[in-house]
Amino acid sequence: MSRDSNPPPINIADPFARGLLTRYLERRKTDIEQLRNALASKNYATIERTGHNLFGSGAAYGLDAISTLGADLERAAQDSNDEAIASLVEELEEFVKTVAIA
């Protein structure tokens, strides 16, 4: 992963907020699968929309890496850049796997 291979743990004292963030990250796994399916079928509209949603929602949860990846996915979809999309989806998956909530 080229951005931040070892993101620092996200410290959240409030159990409710911790639960929200945990669920948010779990939903990103569904996004990753949908992005892969959309790329396989060259459904750039779905990739662009998902990237746009990630751009907005990542910032709302304080996950700037997800926002950046979302913006990059949106642009790559607009350019129909399969190679960039595949790479960005891998980066997103790695980030979701490595982020820790403390």
Describe what is shown at a glance:
74% of the residues lie in helices and 0% in strands.
Number of domains: 1
Summing up helix and strand content along with how strands pair, one would put the structural category as mainly alpha
Q: What about the largest sheet?
A: none
Q: What's the CATH architecture?
A: Up-down Bundle
- N-to-C order of helices and strands: HHHH
Strand content is: under 5%
Radius of gyration: 13 Å
Distance between the termini: 22 Å
What top-tier CATH class fits best?
Mainly Alpha
Shape: elongated
At CATH level 3, the topology is Four Helix Bundle (Hemerythrin (Met), subunit A)
| Individual helix count | 4
The counted number of beta strands is: 0
CATH homology group: HPT domain
Detail the poorly predicted runs.
none
Record the SSE blueprint.
Elements: H1 15-40, H2 44-60, H3 64-78, H4 82-98
Helix pairs in contact: 1-2, 1-4, 2-3, 3-4
